[in-house]
Write a structure and sequence with these properties.
mainly beta, Immunoglobulin-like, 4-stranded antiparallel β-sheet, 3-stranded antiparallel β-sheet, 7 strands, 13% helix, flat
Amino acid sequence: MAIIKWEPFPDFDRFFEDFGSVGFPQMPKMGWDLAIDVYEDGNDVVAKMNLPGIDPKNVDVTVEDAHLRIAGSRSEEKEEKKKQYYSKEIRRGSFERVVRLPHPVMEGKIKAEYQKGVLTVRMPKASQTKGNKIKIEEKE
């Protein structure tokens, strides 16, 4: 008779996979897709974020202390009692994403545009200084 090694972890994984399909939405479906692309384009640092179905009036973009902050909300639609929902996965409410910028930017010249569900923030790079020599004053 052959001895079969019992490996409990695949059983646990299968249990939780099955548990997720029984009535509880799995985690990726529950959250916001807050992925953001940050890259350099010439003399600009550019950030792109997908925000489909969100009114750009409900989005705030700020840059402070070398961090880009994008925050906003998707308002709750009035749920109609006539509809029988089989699945309701579209996330409502507020969101926020903060990313550290790879380069200093000129905060007064930042431009943001929203087109076809994509928010693009263009931030001109600030000239990077290597430090200032400080003159010491002599006092008597």
